[in-house]
Specification:
Blueprint lengths: L21 E2 L6 E3 L4 H11 L7 E3 L5 E3 L7 H4 L1
Antiparallel strand pairs: 1-2, 3-4
Length: about 80
């Protein structure tokens, strides 16, 4: 699997017309402004009004983080 993916976000208060990050010329690797899956998850949770640092219990009652990333503040304006 290649270490790059594309995604589109709209609504939920995200300002339109933004592009964040870029890939190398072959589209295989991040060239700038790399975003990780935990950052994307934290951003989605934030937009839904859920604390990205919230925890929930696993089957044994241990707390698990909702996300291990930070929201992409530059995307949120």
């Amino acid at each position: 699997a290649l270490p790059i993916f594309s995604f589109v976000m709209a609504g939920a208060g995200i300002p339109g017309g933004q592009v964040l990050g870029a890939s190398d010329p072959t589209g295989a690797y991040p060239a700038r402004d790399r975003v990780t899956p935990p950052e994307l998850t934290a951003t989605i949770l934030h937009l839904l009004g859920i604390d990205h640092e919230a925890t929930f219990p696993d089957r044994t009652g241990r707390p698990l983080l909702a996300s291990e990333g930070e929201p992409i503040w530059s995307l949120l304006g």
